[in-house]
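Supplementary Text 2. Reproducibility record for the structural model of the 180-residue chain.

All settings were left at their defaults, and a single model was retained for analysis rather than an ensemble. We include the record here because the model underlies the residue-level annotations in Supplementary Table 4.
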Amino acid sequence: MTRVLGLAGGPEVGGRTATAVAGILAGAADRGAETGLLELSRTALSEVVEAIEGADAVVFGSPVYRATYSALLKGVLEGTERGKWGETRAPLQGKAAAVVLTGASGHHFLAVNDLRGVLAGFFAVQVLAPGLYLDHSGFLDRKTLTEDSAALAATHGSALVDLTITVRSSPALAALRPQV
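Retained model, structure tokens:
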């Protein structure tokens, strides 16, 4: 069974970011994955890291503030070891991931690439491309994606399951480590 963890890095519980992450998780669940969602605004770092260790794949979700992902998500990434420089754990290493960011307008969609770069380069995570960016037009309200956005999120979830299976079955992909 593939286990997919969703991390929602928005300051509000149940906001648009959590809705977008849940849309990706729904697509993964449709493919038979076991899914779970953690809201970073109400979850301790130790619990997040433990959940990452138990997952096969992670969906990283965040609203965009000042052209980048949230401080909540940055805090998780800064507090997550990567097996370098005396660190004893590397919970993200050898995992697959998807990225979904939310924002007020389409002007910030390139922030997806910044998060993808950190995950791939710094943590050696295999990140689904392209990332997903949803502005307000992708939502009917704070808790409901439009039909098109829901279908796109579900496709990302399904593709994440495929990527996860590929990463798990490849000794070479699973062996990749951060360079520095």
